[in-house]
């Protein structure tokens, strides 16, 4: 436990005195064939894939970090034999910072903000897995720090960089279904326990795991396999539930296409306990004001696994070849005043009704640049190229919106939302859910 408490003040002293002293803006100019040097924080599970993908995009992996030393297994050690391994991301930044241009963060949700902010304050570009933050306040704060530091950023909602979403955005903005008046999105998650009614009792901590580093800023809890390594998503202390996991993927295209920003209200209907974590199933309705591409708009989210699964009502599929059951292989429906657009982010096989509108809009020009993938887009941005399009100026407000659904779930009532001031005007009691307190030595 001593390693957890000892390094923060030492780290801050060595790199600038206080957390607010990090004001180093990246200034290195890259040559045509020069490679980006990246440190990777969180290298198990999805993190292992992120390390590989960033390396495949042309970056050099020069440092690795994970709270569980088993994560640096044979494959990772063989591929990156010269990359020092650390358990504490603060130690990685302290010891390896002078060698780093950028950092990836693929930890559980509750550590995203801290790792990313500390790196950005050192002038490092950052890639952060979705959702980019654990709370609404953290998403706003990360966006602010990125802007102040002038670093290249990217949230890891991979499909944002791919053809289906970028082309769908162009078609929606071109008016393929007219001005949009409803959005419906859905998922079969969670695939981990939710609706939990009691906290688990303590279990022995695995020898390879630094549990107190894993907890980081989260409340002090005894170790249990129900949290780590996989099921943390279902607990409010560490994860953001089915909504946080999949919303940043599935809600992305319509949020981007319609140029949405702050909803005016959010309301949730749930099935199962929400005391300790996400519900078994939820239906969430965001209300947005009228914009260039949309009328005043209800944006609905549905989740749940197996028998608890929520789906849009049958009526929204009228006039299409789908119903609630057959549409489960898709995950998004936009209803405009001239038609309906059914979508899945992994394919360009559009389902547009009336069907002749697809032919009518086939020559819609490309207005959004195309890239090989999200990792290549971010690596090039870090080296001085165009900004990655899931940068924090986009993904910050988007993540705020997604996580407002969890605020409504936990509040147990409709939230009237003042987005610019980040306040629930009818529910001041949820302020600690908007910005939660951190454990000692982890304050931002």
Morphology call: globular
For the biggest sheet, the summary is: 9 strands, mixed
What percentage of amino acids are in beta strands? 15-25%
Assign the CATH architecture of the largest domain. 2-Layer Sandwich
- The helix-and-strand class reads alpha/beta
The side-by-side strand order for the widest beta sheet comes to 13-12-11-7-10-9-8-14-15
Strand segment count: 15
Number of helices: 14
Indicate the radius of gyration in whole angstroms. 22 Å
Order of helices and strands: HEHEHEHEHEHEHEHHHEEEEEEHHHEEH
Identify the CATH class of the largest domain.
Alpha Beta
What does this structure look like?
Helix content is 30%, strand content 18%. The protein has helices at residues 2-15, 46-56, 74-79, 89-96, 112-121, 136-149, 163-174, 211-215, 241-250, 252-257, 356-360, 374-382, 392-411, 431-434, and strands spanning 37-41, 60-65, 85-86, 102-105, 125-129, 153-156, 180-186, 265-271, 281-288, 294-304, 332-336, 339-343, 351-353, 415-418, 423-424. The radius of gyration is 22 Å and the shape is globular. The protein has a 9-stranded mixed beta sheet. A 6-stranded parallel beta sheet has the order 3-2-1-4-5-6, with helices on both faces. It is α/β, with parallel strands linked by helices. It has 14 helices and 15 strands. The longest helix is centred in the last third of the chain and has 20 residues, at 392-411. It folds into 2 domains: 2-158, 3-Layer(aba) Sandwich (Rossmann fold), CATH 3.40.50.720; 161-194 and 226-387 and 399-434, Dihydrodipicolinate Reductase, domain 2 (2-Layer Sandwich). Helix 5 (112-121) runs parallel beside helix 6. Helix 5 (112-121) links the parallel strand 4 and strand 5 (125-129).
């Amino acid at each position: 436990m001593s390693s957890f408490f000892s390094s923060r003040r030492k780290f801050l002293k060595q790199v600038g005195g206080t957390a607010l002293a990090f004001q180093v803006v990246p200034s290195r100019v890259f040559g045509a064939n020069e490679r980006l040097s990246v440190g990777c924080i969180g290298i198990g599970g999805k993190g292992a894939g992120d390390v590989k993908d960033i390396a495949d995009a042309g970056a050099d992996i020069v440092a690795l970090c994970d709270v569980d030393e088993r994560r640096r297994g044979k494959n990772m050690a063989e591929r990156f034999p010269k990359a020092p391994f650390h358990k504490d991301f603060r130690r990685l930044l302290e010891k390896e910072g002078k060698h780093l241009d950028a950092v990836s963060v693929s930890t559980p949700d509750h550590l995203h903000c801290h790792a990313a902010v500390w790196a950005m304050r050192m002038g490092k570009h950052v890639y952060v897995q979705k959702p980019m933050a654990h709370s609404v306040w953290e998403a706003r704060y990360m966006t602010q720090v990125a802007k102040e530091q002038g670093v290249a950023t990217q949230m890891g909602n991979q499909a944002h960089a791919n053809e289906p979403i970028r082309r769908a955005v162009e078609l929606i903005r071109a008016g393929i279904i007219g001005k949009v008046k409803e959005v419906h999105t859905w998922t079969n998650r969670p695939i981990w326990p939710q609706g939990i009614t009691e906290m688990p009792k303590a279990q022995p901590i695995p020898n390879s795991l630094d549990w107190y580093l894993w907890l980081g800023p989260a409340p002090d809890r005894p170790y249990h396999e129900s949290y780590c390594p996989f099921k943390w998503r279902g607990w409010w202390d560490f994860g953001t539930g089915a909504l946080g996991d999949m919303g940043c993927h599935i809600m992305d295209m319509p949020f981007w296409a319609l140029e949405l920003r702050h909803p005016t209200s959010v309301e949730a209907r749930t099935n199962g306990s929400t005391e300790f974590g996400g519900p078994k199933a939820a239906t969430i309705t965001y209300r947005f004001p009228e914009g260039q591409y949309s009328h005043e708009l209800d944006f609905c989210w549905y989740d749940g696994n197996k028998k608890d699964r929520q789906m849009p009502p049958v009526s929204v599929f009228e006039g299409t070849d789908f119903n609630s059951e057959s549409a489960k292989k898709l995950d998004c429906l936009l209803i405009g005043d001239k038609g309906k657009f059914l979508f899945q982010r992994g394919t360009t096989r559009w389902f547009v009704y009336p069907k002749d509108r697809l032919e009518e809009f086939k020559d819609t020009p490309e207005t959004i640049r195309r890239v090989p993938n999200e990792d290549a887009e971010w690596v090039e941005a870090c080296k001085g190229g165009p900004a990655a399009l899931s940068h924090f100026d986009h993904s910050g407000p988007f993540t705020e919106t997604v996580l407002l659904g969890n605020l409504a779930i936990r509040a147990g009532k409709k939230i009237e939302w003042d987005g610019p001031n980040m306040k629930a005007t009818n529910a001041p009691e949820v302020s600690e859910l908007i910005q939660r307190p951190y454990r000692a030595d982890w304050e931002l």
